Amino acid sequence: MHQCQFCTQMPNQVVQCTACNHYCRISLDKTGICGVRLNKNGVLYLAVHSRPSAVHVDPIEKKPLYHFYPNSQIFSIGTIGCNFKCDFCQNWSLSMERPGDIEDRCQQEDELTPQQVIDFCLRKKIPSIAFTYNEPTIWIEYNLDICKLAHHNNIKTVYKTNGFMSPEVRSELVKYISAINIDLKCFNEASYIKMGGRLKEVCDNIKFFFDNNITTEVTT
Predict the structure, then answer these.
(1) 31 and 103 belong to one structural domain
(2) Which keywords are on file for this protein (predicted)?
(3) Which of 7, 77, 79, 171 has the highest CB neighbour number within 10 Å of its CB?
(4) Which domain holds residue 161?
């Protein structure tokens, strides 16, 4: 369990998460919509920090990124949970997992610290790291710790995301990531609401990263 950075204390031991645009207000012993950000004794914790559920070395085109380091390998890492509920999700076995006891579930995963991720990439000469498989915004503290170490070791970091991160998160991410692929799932607000998000915030974030000189690709 790792204390969350992106949150605000509220009265009666309620914590407001600021990782994504849901801004969940989380009561004691409850999680936000994502299922992995847990209020314990009035403090918000990330239950999946250093506990990935999926790791793999991929061709970068699988992310998919077409205009960023083509024909290179990328270290891909993901956890569990999501802040959306898309019924067509390709990685539903990870993203839709909602364990009854998140602490017990995460204790079963093998630990992989940010430093271990960096050491592996340096040893294997892998030039970049992707936060992918499930929505990386919900485990921002884990991937941000990896980003900071990667930045100091000349390893690039990229996001594969639904684009629903909060302004607080995007302002921090833009300091470290080099590329991002954002899913623009449709142009219909009603459909976005059914999936658990909103169209405007996704479009705003696409524009934000593009305007801040991050290599920005969009999956439709």
Answers:
(1) no
(2) 4Fe-4S, Iron, Iron-sulfur, Metal-binding, Pyruvate, S-adenosyl-L-methionine
(3) 79
(4) 54-219
